[in-house]
Amino acid sequence: MSITQNVLLAKERIAAAAMAAGRDPGEIRLLAATKMNGPDAIREAIAAGVDICGENRVQEYISKAEVNAYGSCPVHFIGHLQKNKVKYLVGKVGLIHSVDSVALMEAVSRRAEALGQVQDILLEVNIGGEAQKSGVAVEDLPALLSAAGNYGGLRVKGLMAIPPAETVPGENVRYFRRMHELFVDNRRKKYDNVLMTELSMGMSEDYQEAVRWGATIVRLGTALFGPRNTMQEASSRGNIGRAEKADETL
């Protein structure tokens, strides 16, 4: 199937999952995870109706932005973010999904304030408690939400999670359920600089279940663009040129 067909199918499945859960399909946005995909593929996905583009790597975002790959489509940053790369994203992407520490929060706020802006972020939760993954531990989330009030250059819009890879279909439901509980519970509380309107969870293998459990943004890569391969990766890496070199000095 083409990228266009894949996007249309994903949107149909999102709508069906939303209606099955008694939700308005218009509440859910489809984010195209564009890692290792070139400008032409991105433009096709946008033309087919994706709502957002999401990049995992700062250097890829820079390279693609330089050739106007995203057009007028909103761009979010969805990958692990280092403090020394914050300056390349703040004020340029609509939402950073992966803030998981006070130190990173401070770096984002400081850069945004220098630009006279407020940067929207999500707090990434390590919902599976996996040692190899980034994200704030569930038990430390309240303290991080409270800390948001100290940083006027940012606004916490909600939560993001990447559950463990499924080995059995439907296995991640428990993580989606827990994320929804955290989302609803913390939405009831009053934190400064926290709106709690977005829940970013669900990827190509499990996005329909994520929608059923309250996701407002689902992040799809292979479901839209097909499996990545070494030739595709080499081509994408070759395209980032100057941005890759610049990134080495960050």
Provide a short characterization of the protein structure:
Helix content is 40%, strand content 17%. It has ten helices and eight strands.
Key phrases:
TIM Barrel; 8-stranded parallel β-sheet; 17% strand; alpha/beta; 10 helices; 250 residues; 8 strands
How would you characterize the overall build of this protein?
45% of the residues are buried. 40% of the residues lie in helices and 17% in strands. Helix 1 (3-20) packs across helix 2 and helix 3 runs antiparallel to helix 10. It is of the alpha/beta class. The chain has a single domain (3-238), classed as TIM Barrel. The longest helix has 18 residues, at 3-20. Helix 6 links the parallel strand 6 and strand 7 (194-200). It has an eight-stranded parallel beta sheet. Residues 230-250 have low confidence and may be disordered. The protein has ten helices and eight strands. It has helices at residues 3-20, 39-48, 58-66, 102-115, 141-147, 173-188, 207-212, 222-225, 230-239, 241-247, and strands spanning 29-33, 52-55, 75-77, 95-99, 119-125, 154-161, 194-200, 217-220.
